[in-house]
Amino acid sequence: DSEILMHWFEGGKVTKKELKPFQIYEFLNKGNARQFMNSLILFLRHTGHQGLILLMDEMETVVTMSTTIRNAAYENVRLFIDNSETAQYLHLFFSIIPDVLLSEKGFKSYDALWSRVRSIGDAKRLNYRGVLVDLHQTPLQTEELLDLGRALRTLHGTSFRWHPEEMVTDSVMEQICDSQKRMGVISEVRLFIKQLISILDLAEQGTSPRDMDMARQMVETRQQMEAEKMKQMQPTWDS
């Protein structure tokens, strides 16, 4: 019984007959999604949690979708911004690139959403409580990148059941930062993350970081990122 309930809770396919013993009579849909979200937050509060944080990545992929799908996605973002019922206990973060804001098929193409974010980026001083926060105005310093790297290293070790700190030491991460400084890209957090993950993957498979060319690997990682960006931004036929 608990498996059925968890399956429904995760958005899986469950029949109404299976849900009836739990006094659940609805499936998640566009009409009740907001109510479900509010109920989830109230449930989390009831179980002792402070609230809910949702982290959304790859928002730029929406730009390449058809008009119908794209507008539906933008409407969902608008609804989250306007949701005041549980705003105190819900924080939603989208990771986006400038193209999502400025391109013809970005936020600007959907007036209901654009009207809520268009003036946010004009301020000279950064407002961390604003709807839109430009992280390029506050690039991470080396020590902050190292803190991020340590957290990623721990996650990698947990995921693959090994001890990465024995091979991928803090000194290795400092070398990554030094390479970025020499190339003038120290503020590119994504580049740091992708290179570190690549090093962790290779080290877990037996390749020592001492045998790696950090500068060359950084160039290759950056080229890979550019290729991924170009692929994501490839246009598709609008329906």
Automatic annotation (TrEMBL):
Superkingdom as given in the UniProt entry: Bacteria
Cited InterPro entries: BrxD (IPR021228)
UniProt-recorded name of the protein: DUF2791 family P-loop domain-containing protein
